Amino acid sequence: MKRPCPLAYKVVLAFLVVLLPVSAMFLFSLKSISRDTGALVNENLRSIAEARSSELLFFLESLKQRVVDFSTDGMIRDSLERAVKEGLDEDPALSAYLVEHKLPVLEDAYGLSVMRMDGKVVSSTDQAVIGEDRSGQEFFLKGSEGPSITVRPAGVPDLVASVPLRSRENGDIIGVLAAFVLKERIGDILARGRGRDIGITRRALEGYETLDIYLVNMDRLMITPSWLIEDTAFRTTVDTEAVRACLEETRDHMGVYEDYRGEIVLGTSICLQDFGWVLLTEVDRSEAFAPVRRLVNYGMLTGVTVLVLVSGFALYFFRMARQLKTIASASKEIAAGNYAARVPVRSGDEIGILAGHFNRMAADVEERSRALMESEERFRGIMDNTNNVVYLKDVEGRYLLINRRYEELFHISGGEISGKTDYDFFPREVADAFRANDLKALASERPVEFEEYAPHDDGLHSYISIKFRLRAADGQIYGVAGISTDITQIRRSQEALAESEEKFRGLVETINDFVWEVDENLVYTYASPKVRSILGYEPDEIIGRTPFDLMPPEEAEKVKRDIERSVERKESFNAYENLNFKKDGSPVVLETNASPVFDPDGVFRGYRGIDRDVTERKAAENALSESESRLANAQRIARLGNWDWDIVNNDLHWSDEIYRIFGVTPREFGATYESFLNHVHPEDRENVIKAVDEALYGKAPYSIDHRVVLRDGTEKIVHEQGEVVHDPAGKPLRMSGTVLDITERKRAEDEVRKLNAELEQRVEERTAELAAANRELEAFSYSVAHDLKTPLRVIDGFARILVKDCSDALGTTGKEYLERLVAASRRMGELIDALLKLSRVMRAEMTVERVYLSGVARAIASDLRKAQPDRNAEFIIHENLAADGDPGLLKTVMENLLGNAWKFTSKKGVARIEFGSSGKEDGKTVFFVRDNGAGFEMKYAERLFNPFQRLHGEDEFPGTGIGLATVQRIIQRHGGSIRAEGESEKGATFYFTI
């Protein structure tokens, strides 16, 4: 007989039989719950990340597209191009335009800036940044290459959308346009669920306090603030497994890893490769698995309870098993996607608590799913309510999704197009173009912009399409998305505007006037090409300036006052003349006609007008006025008046001077031919009538001198001349002429006749006296030549005989006396010859012809060298020097001047003598003779030209002292002058004109 099993063993066995299956089921359920909980948390994190990334990408793309639209603004491009051409460091007008017209449109931006290609800010909505150099900043470098989104960490970190600005003339990049958004805007998008837009709260999973969503850039810096730690943006480096997966392997990551705080988290990352960012959504693992840990604790408590209360365990066994099974079933349903599954809570014990936590977790998952669906609905709402065409295709070109606008334009529903390609709906050439652009977008890391064409009911439409590729969670490219904007109306408007502008330009460029427009500040905003010929400026050179900048200051002040009065009254101004300066500084008179311009609301916006160059007309008017004034003044001075006689109407018109000559006023004169005859002297009246009749009917010249009688009886003598105009039949129509008061001239002529008679008598008397003086001078010359020189020859002859025949008796002293006597007589003879020569110079008749002084000088220099061949001398004679005069006398001048230079340089080792010209003086050529000889002191310069005046001793430089006096007389006879300049021992220069 077997030993019976102790009750304790049975209890233990029963406990084990009950506990082991229960424990196995509990552990299996716990593992399943733990796995499902982790998967559920990660899936929710993934859903949150995808929703936030979609919103973020949509926001960034919208921001970039808006800035791209701004880059096509003609005002911005033209203003920057003008600033670049003119080298402007600042364009206030463009800054005002950005503030007024562009910044309000960008609701999320706080600033706009325009930069030149050297990085200098020329216009901005923030005046403080104008002039800053942005050339080294990332947003400028990327923006100069194409549309880009960057984060600027300098100062307060900014999100910057930048695009290149291109010239409208040649398409070259001339600058960069940048829009600045505070980086907190990104944080707002990530935190949008806090009771706002889409309903995703920060505590996305009920009870989780460590849920964190943030962005990391390529430098592994957190660029949006953490929800868990203060001041983390651009301060905290995040180098986690999820970040490395995106930045190094370009793949999304989901799992358990250590975050930037060193905490183990459940997290997921989405790679935003176009921007080099990583979007991370994380929850601390300790908190994510807190329910599971609590479940383990409750299980252990249950086991202890079972061990202590075996009997109680038996009672609750089936109920516990049933509840655990329910939880497991609910867990599977949730894992399968049925988020509405719940576990009934039948008790307050651990199983009940577990069931409660499970239900709360399931409710939270359901809420997250609903939030995700709402987010998708909002995304769908944005897609369906935008005016752009939005669509998604797979890599094979099959449609995945289209928005409502696509359906409306192309009359096809999303269900009909799903799985089909462009070839099923569009002509082949259109579909080929779409497919080619899709492939380019799939191959590009960045969004690509295309211009595409699609057929519509009213014809072919133009679209601007932005296409970018789509990546799955594993990083694989699964499709391409596109946003297309219909620009057909814009193109048509542009074409219409271009046609209108072309007509306007054709009209403006054909007229001879300068057409312009100014804004409310009177600053030029348009100038027609005619400004080149009128003011000399290119149109771009005056855009941005005011009309007053082109005027003299006084004129500008006057015109400004007049125009400001018109501006205040908003009225036109016509035929307004104003003085301006052309670009070359020459004056020009403009006649301005302008009308005010108002916007549709009636607000004054400036003036539009035309300037006409009336300089010549004004000059002609002034010239006519001045001419009339000068004519009247000349007539008054010359005592010459003009008249015009209308013979048919017997209307006689006199100028003011004739009234003065006749001593009457216009009221006293009858203005008829008879009234004129009444003023003619009675004795001359018949001659005047006869001369007039011969001119009228005999066509003889009318020219007559006659007397007129003034009211006081005074007589005047006038000379009249006139011409007659006849009709084709020979009938006289008009006669006009002049009246000259010759009273004084007649008196002067009488006086001149008397004086001429007296002068002729005086001339005869003076001529007789001059002839007698010439005869006496000739007699004196003969006396000098014969009577004075004969005794000198006798003295010289006997002195020579004494020296020859009586030299022994005379002795040394006697010989010396006789030699001095001979030298003195020879010197006396030379002086007499010099005087005779001077006399002949003054009396000789002159024959004027062209004399080439250079040749004369060379001949004299040659003779001087032959006379003293041992002299070391340099002659410098300028070529082609000539003068009109008497050849013999001019040769005498050259012989004396060059001879003096030769003589006074005899003590120099190397003599230098120059003959040349130093220019003109009073229209005459100035000749000179220069040497480097003994020279003289300037205080004695006037004595040089006096006869027998010498500045050097006879023993030093021999001579008579008459040569320069002869030169002066010859030059004076030729109407010229001579002067000397010198310095002792440094030479002398003689300047003369002929």
- Work out the number of β strands: 31
User: Tell me, what's the shape?
Assistant: elongated
Taking the sheet with the most strands, its summary is:
5 strands, antiparallel
Give the C-alpha Rg: 60 Å
Strand content: 15-25%
Helical fraction: 40-55%
Describe the strand arrangement of the main beta sheet, using strand numbers.
Answer: 2-1-5-4-3
How would you classify the helix and strand content by structural class?
alpha+beta
Distance between the termini: 178 Å
Instruction: Outline the low-pLDDT stretches.
Output: 5-11, 193-206
Give average pLDDT, whole number: 81
* Helix segment tally: 26
Any overview of this molecule?
The structure is a single chain. The chain has 994 residues and is of the alpha+beta class. It has 26 helices and 31 strands. A five-stranded antiparallel sheet has the order 2-1-5-4-3. A five-stranded antiparallel sheet has the order 11-10-14-13-12, with helices on both faces. A hairpin with a 4-residue loop joins strand 20 and strand 21. Helix 23 (807-843) packs parallel to helix 26 (963-973). The N and C termini lie far apart (178 Å). The model is unreliable at 5-11 and 193-206 (pLDDT under 50).
